[in-house]
Design goal:
- It is a single chain.
- With about 250 residues, this protein is mainly alpha-helical.
- It is built from 11 helices and 2 strands.
- The protein has a two-stranded antiparallel ribbon.
Length: about 250
């Protein structure tokens, strides 16, 4: 028998609290790991050296889209408020854009992309999918807000340390997109900041095999997250650098 739970009550239960944390944390476990991994160079490209951290970051951004995109579709269809549906639209559009960049730069960097999210990420989607009504809204928002809050500083570390221009561009886009997603999730009014802050700073340890996306089968077609220009949503607007001609015309050096 289903037991009704409010947004605040969802994260007050100790058992559910640990379950949610365990499901949410793998989404960014690998990204946080890249920020402290060795800077061993695994490839040299015209865009700069590719380190283990760079490779893992690209794969983890790809993996994030493989579970957050379908969750966004669910929010668009099953969200009970306009704000929840709007959050779903931003998840879909944002991760479609990140996915396009990952697929574009991966061949240039010699990176093989995954076609599935990690086992824990897949279970995460199943857990949200099992909820209904207001419980669906609050469960999805709380977990998504935790994962986005954890990945935000991890992106900054990669952006500050990478020597590869393509990885730097991906980090820029990821930074804008995650900030946008945090904003629309908070706009729903369902974020319990006290519990979110606790979970962001007290993540559990999880088995590596549960947090690692499976290696794609040889010859398997590339999974593509479908762009949705029909949604007319802007999730990232980075400032373009001045062109050489613009600098020359203004007399700047």
């Amino acid at each position: 028998m289903r037991i009704p739970r409010t947004a605040g009550a969802i994260f007050m239960s100790g058992g559910l609290l640990m379950t949610v944390v365990a499901l949410a944390y793998p989404a960014i476990l690998g990204v946080e790991k890249t920020a402290t991994s060795t800077e061993r160079i695994i490839a040299n490209t015209p865009f700069g050296p590719v380190t283990e951290a760079d490779r893992d970051f690209v794969i983890k951004v790809r993996s994030a889209g493989l579970w957050e995109y379908p969750l966004g579709e669910m929010a668009m269809e099953r969200g009970t408020t306009p704000e929840m549906k709007e959050a779903g639209e931003h998840l879909v559009v944002g991760h479609a854009g990140l996915d396009e960049m990952c697929r574009r730069i991966a061949p240039e960097l010699g990176i093989t992309l995954n076609n599935q999210a990690s086992p824990q990420q897949q279970q995460f989607v199943a857990t949200v999918d099992a909820a209904q009504g207001k419980e669906f809204d609050s469960t999805a928002v709380q977990i998504m807000r935790v994962t986005h809050g954890q990945i935000f500083p991890a992106i900054a570390k990669i952006r500050a340390s990478t020597r590869n221009t393509l990885v730097r561009q991906l980090a820029d886009l990821a930074n804008d997109t995650v900030l946008d997603h945090i904003t629309v999730l908070e706009k729903t009014g369902l974020v319990n900041h006290e519990n979110v802050n606790y979970q962001q700073t007290n993540p559990p340890k999880l088995p590596k095999d549960q947090a690692t996306p499976p290696v794609p089968q040889p010859g398997a077609p590339m999974v593509v997250l479908t762009p949705r220009p029909d949604l007319d949503v802007n999730t990232a607007a980075p400032t373009a650098p001045p062109s050489p001609s613009a600098s020359a015309s203004t007399g700047e050096e």
